[in-house]
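Fold tokens
===========
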Amino acid sequence: VGHVAGYVSFWKMETMYVTALDKRFEDDQRKRQATALAKDSGAWDSKPNEFWRGDTLQKGARGAGSKRSMGFSSTSLDSSKRSKSFGSVSGEMRMLKGAPAAPKTPFELCAEKRGCIFLTRDRLEDIDVVRISPSGKILAAASHDNFIDLYRITLLEDGHANVKKYATCTGHSSYVTHIDFSIDETLLQSTAGDNELLYWNTNDGKQNPQTFAMRETQWSTVSCPLGWNVRSIWPPGSDGTDINALDRSLQHDALVTADDLGLVKLFRWPATGTRAVSKAYKGHSSHVANIKFSLDGHTVLSCGGADRSLLMWNHFNRINIRAARKARTGVTSGTTATMHQDVVVDAASESVKDGQEFIYEVRITNGQDSDMFTKGLGLSVELVGDNIRSGKKELLAKSGSKFKSGSTDSYSIAVGGSLGNISRMILQCESSSGSLKWLVDQVEVELLRPNKQGPWVFPAKQWMDSRNNRVELYSGESDLERYHLSVQTGPNSKNPSSVYAILYGPAADSGRKLLRTCLEKRQPFKAEQTDTFEIIVNPPLNEITKMRLLLEDTEHPFTVEKAILRRSGCNDLFFSCHRALDATNPFLLLSPSETDETFTYSLNLQAKDKSSIKSSNLPVVKIWFDDKTSLPSMAIKSLSYSKEDASTCSYSAQIKSSSDMGQPSKIEIRQAAEGTTCSLSSIQIICPDGQQVDFPIHAVVNNQQNILTILQGSASVCHSIIVKTGSKMGAGTDANVWCRLNGKNLNSAIFFLKESKENSNKFERKSVDTFMVDVVGDLGDLDSIDIGHDGSGLGADWLLDSVVIKNEVTGKQWNCFADKWLNAGLKEVNLMASTDALMSKYTIQVFTSDVSGAGTDANVFIELKGKDYQFEEKQLLTSSDNSDKFERGNRDTFEISFPRHLGDLESAILRIDSSGLGADWKADKVIVTCSKGVKSAFIFDRWLSKKFPSAEVKATLESEYICYKLSVVTGKVKKAGTDANVFAELIDKNGQTSGERKLSDSETHTDKFERGHTDIFHWSLGAALDGISTLKIRHDGSGWGSSWFLDHVIIEVDHKPDNYEGDMRLTFPCKRWITKQHRSVDLIPGDISGFTYFLHVHTGDLFRAGTDSNVFVEFGNGEVGSGEHALKESKTHSDKFERGHTDVFEITVPKRLPEITQLRIWHDKSGFGSDWNLEKVLILDESAEAMDELANEMDDDSASQVSDSQSVTTTGSGSSRGKTWAFVCRRWLRGDNPEVTLFVGEENALHQYEVEVKTADVAGAGTDANIFLEVHGSQGSTGKHALAKSTTHTDKFEKGHRDVFHIETNHFLGKLDKIEVWLESKSDKDRWHLDEVMVSYIKPKKLDSNALQAIAEGQEMPDSSTTEEPTGITVFPFKAWLDPSDNHAQILPNGDVQTIRFKVATVTGKERGAGTDANVWCQLHGENGSTSKHWLRESAEHSDKFEKGHTDSFSLVHVGQDIGAISSINIGHDNTGVN
């Protein structure tokens, strides 16, 4: 606790007493509750009875023991050691049990008696703020003399505390108001009374100037009202004193503030942006001094100032709002207020329990390698517990930390719930410098709060670097496997620095382990030495099946002779290698053996093409013993030539194994060097037992193709390859053509097709060439072939038509269809092989739309996707119907062949290449018929252009698709046409939709949707809609004349499916305007003529009652309505909606409405005079049906009585007028509320208040500024209203004027409590002297049946039909000035506000240049409150005020409660003027 006079005390939670320790105040304080006791009460709990223990203090008590602030320690210790820190107004500190060495004051004696465990006094001024760090190890105490003292806290086993001051933060120029620690406790932020925010290093108390770097700092608490994450909580015009306190929930989801207006505000966290959205809650009747969240985040406590109240609020997040509301069955809806998007505060309901924030400490111990440290290391960790995972958490390194060898670095992370037992963690690091080498020895994790638990130990002993920057660790020693790996190097090793080992078990691996620090304490991997490394594996592998060695530093190769892996209690494992790790072979995969014996396999490769053999392009061979076991790949190094045959040569090589693998079953051969080939004839392998295994080849090895696989004892099988070249000009090629066969068992080698049986000049246009090829091994059934050329020769481009492959032994034949150009861009293709007939034919019918410009000169391509197969796109070349294909309205038929049947067609893609002069093309549909007679339809109905050259649609059977014909009829009224883009959508009775489509191409008019036009459009759909119930039609408001009068739309079925049973023709009447403001209508089927109602719209006979805005109307019975209609053409006036006018409009709807009970009318606020006074609206039904209903009603005696909730039937002077509905409005439709919904038989008027504003009759009292007013009552407020139009004066707010205004509200305010007045002006010189405001309530009129009948008849309403209850007038006297610096006033009624006049005298100094030309202001502070800011404008002594040596007197008028004895003043100037 922080106290007055510099005392700071520590208390144990279980025996804490908050009492007046000075007997002079104790009796009086026990009678009253605290008002603003704790400026920093971090220990508040959600239960009121656990809020404070013992008695409380009165604000302002200045005895030696008076409390000033409180701070809570949430250290994860047992309950007997949990503590609370108090700051007092006398300046000492204590913690329970244990007395101070020598008590000297009554306060110290009382503290000892109460059980305080520590007391200190390092300051003479009051202790304003105390805060304990998250771990409970550091205390920050801020005194009123601008200093922050830092203490280290140690709780002893005997209950005593060891608290030692170790640093002081010096730098604030005013008293400190708030303090927050960062989560990792390395930083401290603080704010002062002069609105200054500073950051401090907690290790030495020095100021940290890196303010921008603090943007991402995570704070354990947030109470400072300044900072990056709270910069949007301040309202406009704030001076830094409006917000008294704030707090962030421990769940980091919400922020609450307490301000001078008595409001509690709720924000989302963080509160950033230009201005954060908030929700304000009222409960306090004076300023709110402090506010805090409970630990679980479900309760908010606010401490009032002069209202001496402590309010408790329930806080809910979005997840449990519904559950909480269901639990509050007895709470009225008025007690709950929802916040922006996801937060609710309820002051009446019970709190909802939930989890709280858990703080974990992560301690990382660095390895003992003294040379290893890094800079700029960024760390993150994820903890995995039995309950939840923590998610990835950033570990912010301490300032100045260098990860020194042998040191331990600590970090704190916050988790939204308990992890439970932590069994696994993932550690990840990144280095901004790019160089990362870090040895992690061990990691410990401990739960600090709310309850201490752990630690959990994670052994590591792993190197981390830029490649191996993520490790997964497991807790406990029992599951660890420790290995010693000895690596013996050969000669010519170049000391690599980045060598890794990976151990493999039956189901997992160890991950990459950096071999850097050997147990021999020397530089590893020197030539011909053995180095031993320790490898820790967790989780255990149990059995080692393989080991991989990797070299990342390929610039320093080395040779591995062998490796030995040892583990305590297990047999040694030997890995024979005898190979080099270099840039060519950067890794080795080794198999273990339990003996140190070496087995040698020798290879001998025979080659025929001596001219292609060089030492730089020798092949690489890999020996396999079964499908899973092999020896590592070896590069052939030795090359020798045969003495008997100069054209042949041989390769030889040896590879050693740690075990006898037996006889090889197959080999794989590839070329190491790029762009090289070699022709091999056979391979012999000499096994360790001397047995020779032969592999015949007779193939070419090329590194650009797949690996050549040879089986043991494979025989050569002859295949004939028949290649057909296309018939187009330039189809032949001079390039070298190669081929490879891909079978189900294996793939052949690459064969160059050199000698054709038919042609010496092969691969010419229309030629067929046959080649005989020997293939080693049984390929099995052929899947595909790869064929291509090398691009050589003058004419390399080649049109390949097809390829036929025949197995000459079995007689099987496979067909491969191509029809592709192989050129510089595509030198090779993969073709599928099929035993089916070479071609499957498809007939494709392409329909071009019959609209203007639909045809195209571009090349058109199609791609069909079947259920079984899909081939590349084909160009549609020759139409059997038209020589000039793809013209408007044409059908073009094409024949296309594929190598096999595609199966059921699923989709088709059309594409154009945008060539030709008229490239854009509108495709209507495509009908595809396969060789089996099945027809599939593809409905495109869209444009293909350069911007959108392709489109894909799904297939439907031709017997299922439907085509609709839409006839859109534009009305014949004046300016009925539109230039806007029109869209339509069909919806059936089940809610299925056609999707919205643009009506872009009319078949009847180029300039569509013009007055009187009928525009026809065709829509094709894959399936028919099940009864069209709604037609949605809209336009986008573009063009000069966008408003459109749509008469009706007719939908006909042009092509129907075989099973179609729906309507063949539907009419959708509209007969209304579709305007730019209301661009969409929903139409239903009906008669083409529709049904007409007549609307009589009466504008009020008041000053400026008319409007220039566009007016819209909609009426119905709540279930069936007319739809929105624009009232454009009045039958009675060309200039409609003018004062006193009655305008008549015809409204046509699809069907006659069964009853009309309500009407919605509004305007769009356009034009110069948009405000509109609407008197009433009459709806007349003059149809024959209405006449019949009228006759029936006249026969009934009861028909003479008209109910307030029914329509009115009239005969109108003897002639039948039909049925009439009367809607009385009598209100203004203004810019802030331009819409109203009216009901039959109701006055529908809002609650009106008449406001009379009197401007004082003194010089300069008037103003041209904007004045706003809000009236508050016991049942709500009007909201802030601009006093815009005075009914008494055109030039309002002039000297001595009384201006009358009317304010409308949706609800009754009840008894008037106060008013608020604002003056807003862009000029600093606008002032206004307000004398008083009088507010009276005008009760709405009630209409009886006689009044309704008179209104329907167009007669004046009889006086007897209205009732009016007069109400009293509430007077709000002010008699003071408002100006831009003091532009807001709250006024209580009937003189409740006290007016106090102060005389302020300023004495300017006598030094040179002491005077000022600036505007000077002054604010007075007293015991009970403060005045607002007042500008010192008129000096009683001098016209040129504030000059050197002058004494100037001013008169200040304060409107409000007495501020009491003046304790201080604030004075300043606005820095204007020359000096």
